[in-house]
Amino acid sequence: MKKILLCGMKYDKNFGDPIINECCKSIIEDILDSNNITEYKIEEIDLCGRSDFNTLEYLNRNIIFYIKKIIFKVISKINNTLLKGKCSKIYNFLDMVKWYFTEEYTILHKNYKNKIEEADVIIFVGGGMIKYKYQNCYHYINFVSKIANNKNIPICLNAVGVEGYDEKNIKCRMLKKALNRKCVKMITIRDDIEKLNKYIVCKDIITKKVSDPAVYTNRTYNIEKNKNSEIIGLGVCRSNLFIDNDINYNEENLLNLWKNIIDTLDRNKIKWKIYTNGLEDDNKFAIKLINKLKLDEHNLVIPNSPEELVKIVSNFKAIIATRLHSCIVAYSLNIPAVGLVWNRKLKMFGESIGYEERFIEVENFNDKFIVEILKKALQEEYNKISQEEYIKSERETLENFLNLY
């Protein structure tokens, strides 16, 4: 029996990543079923070592565990000092090293190493994986590809996003090395193919631009849009999301923007409701916004699962959102989405689906302009032919990888 190992953020609280995971799994099952292949087993690992939406896997709290915790805290404290002094080379080196003293590293090594070694093929399910500035994705790819390379297990990085490239950064160099191991056979990209080419040295790796797996959301969850809805969803994000992506737009700016958007919607007699993708820091901002506007809690809806997020989005007539996967879920449900751009990946998604103008960059963050774009989007249908072609690209490349390996 063939074993397919899926690697992703299966239990992330930003429910966009679990939706990617479920959609990728659904596409693979559909491919295998349509080819009458029944002798297979799909295994899954959460790259942060989580076992469900609430907890990390259990770890023995022995002396080594506590020594690692102390070392991690010491490195973090040194790095906080270095950050103020802007010693970037030492900071990046220590930031890379401290991962080896985290719980997630211990769990990946202890619980998931065997799963990696026993797989016949490995698929990274998608999402913003090729990055190193924040989050530990570069470590995850390096960890998995190093083990897979020793066992000659083929890897596909499926519909991943690329966020940044800097040859001087040691973390970027680690990521580049991990991506060019012989075991890496295919990398499909959802956005910046040109930036991906900066990473790829090995010419044998198949690369292609495809759709994000979440375009299969309606098929995976079997959920359709509520055609009778008159409510606009307002998908908010955490306070520092723009700042962390080098855009000078802080919490106060965001609070005022949403207040002005809501005021403009009210003047146009357009119903609305605030929601999040489930991430705790997004939820905290949403509550701050509710308190600032002195609104009742019924004006806010927070999902508790990926499926619940899909259901929430399905009950909107259209959305104005900051999170990419709110926009992609809406697209899969044929619901118009207006995106507030904090990262180029939103703009590139807009370009890919042929509606770039609906993804608005910070210099155009004006409530009247945003609502006008929303009104225009409500009058237009998605181009069905280009939509089907775009969706098909993800399935075809996954099928190609499975056929080859």
Assembly type of the shown chains?
single chain
* Count of DSSP H/I helices: 16
**Proportion in helices:** 40-55%
Query: Residue-averaged pLDDT, rounded?
Result: 92
Instruction: Note poorly predicted spans.
Output: none
The separation of the N and C termini measures 14 Å
Percentage of residues in DSSP E strands: 15-25%
Succession of helices and strands: EHEHHHEEHEHEHEHEHHEHEHEHEHEHH
Q: Largest sheet, if any?
A: 7 strands, parallel
* Rough outline: globular
Structural class: alpha/beta
Number of strands: 13
Structural Rg = 21 Å
Structure in words:
This protein has 16 helices and 13 strands. The protein has helices at residues 16-34, 63-85, 88-97, 103-118, 137-151, 170-179, 193-199, 217-221, 241-244, 251-267, 280-292, 306-314, 324-332, 344-353, 367-378, 384-404, and strands at residues 2-8, 40-46, 121-124, 127-131, 155-163, 184-189, 206-209, 231-235, 271-275, 300-301, 318-321, 337-340, 359-360. Strand 1, helix 1 and strand 2 (40-46) form a beta-alpha-beta unit. The mean pLDDT is 92. Strands 1, 2, 3, 4, 5, 6 and 7 form a seven-stranded parallel sheet that branches. The protein has a six-stranded parallel sheet with strand order 10-9-8-11-12-13, sandwiched between helices. Helix content is 49%, strand content 16%. With 405 residues, it is of the alpha/beta class. Helix 5 runs parallel beside helix 6, helix 10 packs across helix 11 (280-292) and helix 10 (251-267) crosses helix 15. It is globular, with a radius of gyration of 21 Å.
